[in-house]
Write a structure and sequence with these properties.
The chain is an all-alpha fold. It has one domain. The protein has five helices and no strands.
Length: 157
């Protein structure tokens, strides 16, 4: 039996992979806006270091946001798991924007960034939330089905 945090981390990892595919297309076919891994690397004081950006992107998406979603999901508003995921991810996006403006360098949104970058980040966070909520709900449902199958079964040892 997995804890809510474990389910959240798995769902966060899957959602991060989904968003990373979008980011990879943006990075290699465009870039139309600054890729999120480069944005994160710049915020961490290592501008241009794509490896650091990807690592931070996966840690933040799976460990931080995934586990936080696992904790908060049962108490969140929304009718569907995907709606809960979008609400959560857009909230995470808002925290990121406030953090950048309060503690980071808001000039990163000028020039090649600007509104396009903010909009891209909002859309990619919404995609993250949809996948996060869907995978989390599937893990919960899978565990419920397994518990129902095991109901009344004697232990093997």
């Amino acid at each position: 039996m997995m804890s809510r945090v474990q389910k959240g981390v798995i769902a966060g990892l899957v959602a991060t992979v989904a968003v990373s595919i979008l980011e990879a297309v943006n990075l290699f076919a465009g870039p139309w806006v600054e890729p999120f891994p480069l944005f994160i690397a710049g915020m961490l004081g290592m501008p241009g270091n794509l490896a650091v950006g990807w690592i931070a992107h996966f840690v933040a998406g799976s460990v931080v946001l995934g586990s936080l979603f696992g904790i908060l999901c049962p108490k969140m508003p929304g009718q569907t798991p995907e709606t809960k995921g979008i609400i959560f991810a857009v909230g995470a996006w808002a925290v990121l924007m406030v953090t950048v403006f309060l503690f980071g360098d808001p000039r990163i949104f000028r020039g090649s960034g600007g509104f396009g970058m903010v909009a891209w980040m909002l859309v990619s966070h919404a995609v993250f939330g949809i996948v996060l909520g869907n995978v989390y709900a599937r893990l919960v449902e899978r565990e419920k089905r397994a518990a129902k199958l095991m109901d009344g079964v004697a232990p093997a040892h």
